[in-house]
Amino acid sequence: MIRASRWIGLGLAVALTACGGGSDGDADVGPPAGTQQYPGGIWEGTSGSGAAQRTMVGFVDPGVDGKGGEFYFARGAAGSAGYDSLYGLLRTNVTAVQATGVTYFSVQDGKFAEGLSLRGTAASHPTTGRPATLSGNYTSPAGTAAATGSPTSFKLNYSALNNHPARADLLAGTYRGAGVFGGQWVFTISPRGVLSGRVGGCNVQGTATPRAPDSALYSVTMNLSGDEITCGAYSGSQQSGVAFLRFDDANVPNGIWMFTRNATGTSNTYVLNGLADPRQPSIPSPTPLSIAGNWAGTLRLPAGVTGDESIWGSVLPDGGFFFYTNSSFNHNALYGRLIRYHEDESFNRFVTAQDGVYFDRLLGGTGDYQGGYVGGVLVDATLESMDASGAATRLTGTYSYAGQPGGYPTGMVMQPDSKYTLPRNREPNINLIVGSYRMPGTGFGGHTTDIMVAADGSITGTTTNGCEIVGMLLGGVGSGLNLYRVEAFGYIESSLVPSNTIGCELSTGPSQSGSAAAIFDPEGRVIGLRILTAGLQVSGKRAHTVFVGDRR
User: Do residues 116 and 86 make contact, with C-beta atoms less than 8 angstroms apart?
Assistant: First the structure.
């Protein structure tokens, strides 16, 4: 959900998960004497009474002394319109809770009411001493669709989500959802806290990291970019805020809530409620085969179909894969995510859940990078054999999609690619591949591409058709694997566009992510670099990159 807003202080998170709780009416709540309360944490409950009762969830920052700070409560709006927002600065004096100058945002009509007050009482559990309840009322948001003319009561319980301290390994994964206003969104968060994806029509790059050892919250930053049509005034703005995870009965993360506000640029707020993509199942040892690595092989085309017969590519430990074919001008590409669905003593089988993507350079006769994409591709591949390290030494399978030439699946047989085998006694390290690389313009679209990898992993470069390249290469994805994560990879229109070109066709494309691998000679020296990335905008526009360059 995207909405214009004016926030105070830092962004705060809420978990929109209903729980029980009643209401004591609109009576004023006094400040009884007792033990000092410390309300920091996530809260869940209800607001209002009778037919007007709604789910209410929120978060209170403990502040420097634990007695309270910034708070954010979300209240379900009428007609399933989403959640209204109530935020400001909250403090406790023993058990009395008070906030003045509170801001209310009504999602139904997009209006704000300011200067509200909130009063209530905080109580702790009599046995554990932990926070237990927070109840009270707040004044009516006059001038909005949520106005009631009288104070509205609320009763909140300390959420069980506070029992899940934030950890980077829990947060790592892909999350996606849809907002009432913002349209679809998707984020991938790496184990190192790099966030990339899209929200609404904007590309997003940023960070998401644990906030504190004893907190369930994650600190979030987001940088928004995009063209005037898809991202509009939000392009170039920065967001900051917090997020926290939801969990299933087995305590596996299955969703996320993220709340950010603008730090720079046009005022706006993102409230994102997303589901987590299925986590890759842990693979038991020692029998399973590892598919992660770099592969090369041949295609078995259906009868009567001609085309490329060689195929190369990479598979990451989380199942992300990218394969491509070569030609004199361009390439076809196949990418997605593999998940294991069967294994026995001698093999594992992987399959994409009908969501692979195939790029046909000849589809529609265009052969460009803006068209030619087909979704819903099914990949069914079996791993065979196993070396001493437990890695598979043969991959056989098929891929198929609606309208496929020949009407039958295309077969493939692949083996580990020796050019990308990590030399003995070497571990993946960015220092191995720091340097400059060039892919000549005789293939892959006809544009010469130069890329440089710096010691901090930053990727820069240029193409002969007027593109500047930016991106980030992260550390190795696993011991013994010649694979690196690539995030925030994209193209920018250069200010030095040659007069004989049409400019950078990919400058309006989505931010891309994927993998990289070094190319070694027989003596173990790095002689080249391969980068395979892809991206998708909420509008459905796709883009991808195949860079195979020689070291200069």
Answer: yes
Token pair listed for 181: 């206003």
* Paired tokens of 225: 């970019």
Q: Which residues face 227 on adjacent strands?
A: none
Question: With 50 as the cut, is the pLDDT of residue 103 above it?
Answer: yes
Q: What is residue 203's three-state secondary structure?
A: strand
CB 201 within 8 A of CB 229: yes
Q: What is the pTM of this model?
A: 0.52
Torsion of CA 463, 464, 468, 470, to 10 degrees: 0
Q: Is the peptide bond before 510 cis (omega within 30 degrees of 0)?
A: no
pLDDT, tens digit, 9 for 90 and up, residues 268-303: 777 777 788 777 554 333 344 578 899 999 998 877
Domain 293-416 coded CATH 2.40.160: yes
DSSP state of 507: T
Question: Measured in Å, how far apart are the chain's first and last C-alpha atoms?
Answer: 47
3-class DSSP state of 171 = helix
Selection from 297, 481, 319, 464 nearest residue 397 by Cα: 297
What is the H or E stretch that residue 433 is in?
Answer: helix 430-433
Tell me the C-alpha to C-alpha distance, in Å, between residue 433 and each of 175, 476, 519, 552.
Answer: 31, 12, 9, 12
d(CA 364, CA 361): 9
Tokens describing residue 161? 């989500």
Contacts of 513 (CB under 8 A, 6+ apart): 188, 196, 485, 486, 487, 488, 489, 533, 534, 535
- Residue 31 DSSP code: -
Burial code (b: 16+ CB inside 10 Å, e: under 16) for 414-444 equals: bebbebbebeeeeebebebbeeebbbeeebb
Q: In whole angstroms, what is the distance from residue 141 CA to residue 109 CA?
A: 12
Any idea which architecture 18-158 has in CATH?
Beta Barrel (2.40)
Asked whether the beta carbons of 519 and 417 are under 8 A apart, the reply is: no
Class of the domain covering 430-551: mainly beta
Token pair for residue 171? Answer: 């947060």
pLDDT tens-place string over residues 440-471: 875 555 688 999 999 989 999 998 888 899 99
The Cβ-side half-sphere exposure at 451, using a 13 Å CA radius, reads 31
Q: Where are the domains of the chain?
A: 18-158, 168-276, 293-416, 430-551
CATH class of 168-276: mainly beta
Dist. CA 97–CA 34, nearest whole Å: 13
25-41, pLDDT tens digit by residue? 444 454 455 799 999 98
**Strands 269-276 vs 173-179: parallel, antiparallel or unpaired:** antiparallel
